[in-house]
């Protein structure tokens, strides 16, 4: 029996991150870790958006440069990127982002489809948007972020 009085049934928690001036949200259910990047080992002949691999508590993690993946310019402030640790199909990944924000609980009924004028690079990895006070939060579809290597190379 469904309980219509429980508003939390429609809420999803998102870890918010910034890339440049754009706010993104990752479903908290997909986030394993948030960490600062330490030592990164480059991988010869890898795709340009693969920043390298790192050892995180005994696990080998593939680091993905989200700026590169989304066609954004390199960060010019000299600060080290942060990483959001996720797992997919038994593999560990670190999505390199500029900064991590807060965790937001947002009503899924308010999530909208991608606007027609959303940049095509963002639209490919977006699972919709939430309109916040003066800002657009792009919900990242983690599986699309990880599976778009062929689309970029094409």
Automatic annotation (TrEMBL):
SUPFAM superfamilies under this entry?
A: CheW-like
InterPro entries per record: CheW, CheW-like_dom_sf, CheW-lke_dom
Q: Which domain of life is it from?
A: Bacteria
Tell me which residues make up the CheW-like domain: 11-151
Pfam families given for it? CheW (PF01584)
Q: Which SMART domains match?
A: CheW
Name it.
Chemotaxis protein CheW
Q: Which organism is it from?
A: Rhodoplanes tepidamans
């Amino acid at each position: 029996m469904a309980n219509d009085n429980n508003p939390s049934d429609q809420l999803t928690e998102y870890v918010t991150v910034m890339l440049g001036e754009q706010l993104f949200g990752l479903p908290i259910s997909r986030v394993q870790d948030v960490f600062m990047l330490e030592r990164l080992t480059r991988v010869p002949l890898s795709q340009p958006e693969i920043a390298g691999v790192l050892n995180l508590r005994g696990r080998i993690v593939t680091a993905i440069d989200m700026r590169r993946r989304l066609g954004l310019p390199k960060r010019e402030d000299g600060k080290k990127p942060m990483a959001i640790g996720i797992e997919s199909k038994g593999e560990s990944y670190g999505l390199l982002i500029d900064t991590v924000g807060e965790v937001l609980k947002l009503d899924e009924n308010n999530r909208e489809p991608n606007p027609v004028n959303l940049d095509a690079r963002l639209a490919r990895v977006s699972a919709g948007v939430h309109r916040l006070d003066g800002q657009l939060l792009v919900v990242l579809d983690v599986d699309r972020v990880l599976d778009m290597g062929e689309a970029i190379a094409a």
